[in-house]
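Record type: monomer structure entry
Structure origin: computed from sequence
Chain ID: A
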Amino acid sequence: MHGRGRPVFSFEFFPPKSDDHVAALLRTVADLKDALAPNFVSVTNGAGGTTRARTLDTVTRVQAELGITAMAHLTCVGVTETDLCNEIGGLLGSGIENILALRGDPPKGEATFKPVEGGFAHASDLIQYLEDNYSVDIGAACYPERHVESASAEDDMQWTRVKVENGALFLVTQLFLDDRVYFEFVERARNARIRVPIVPGIMPITNVAQVERFTQMCGARIPAELQERLQRVKDDPAAVMATGIEHAITQCRRLLEGGAPGLHFYTLNKSFATRSVLAAVRKV
């Protein structure tokens, strides 16, 4: 996933919950493709056989039918090494050669992550397995405000470096809402001898309750000034959307001006906010 010196723009989707929603998602991806020509799209991977199968189906169709380079998410949740081998074989057989390797969240109702017997406990283990056994481009996640399970920022950075040492060619950040957080993280990463591209993950705000829930889950902070603006308009969906888009445009412009290698948008399977933000950013 290299942009040859130009910013790389990408979009993330989650697989449809039912077969009936597949066509709608493909239309959303096609809409973004025609308007914004992303460098690639990625599709997340949840727990359970049906969801994981839909990830394979979705990334395959995006790449085959829409002609967009697709990246599949692989997690360690609920799967053995044999299961993963079968999944990777299916991906490679469909021409998918880009993988974002993640540990994944604990299943609902469980406080901590526990690998199944014969599975992997950490993303770094999955990355090493991919690097040792397959010819694929591997990406990994990183956490500018540290992973919620990390003991400290230093501990989190150590595990980030292990991911890169094990084979990750680029990193994509968890969502954050203050661009200073990104630049401080990149500086610390470079001081920790991490040299791979670090792509900021952007989630345009479209719903106040939703962004508050997401940030609590991942440990990200909402800047006080932005929080105040959102609270003033929280009962007006159109105003919330406008506020979120305005903030994301400013954030993205600052990130690119400061040297970020691209932008990875968490679309939540909706195109309007992402389309509005990236269209405005590209005009500059």
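Annotation 1: The domain at 8-283 is CATH 3.20.20.220 (TIM Barrel).
Annotation 2: The chain has ten helices and nine strands.
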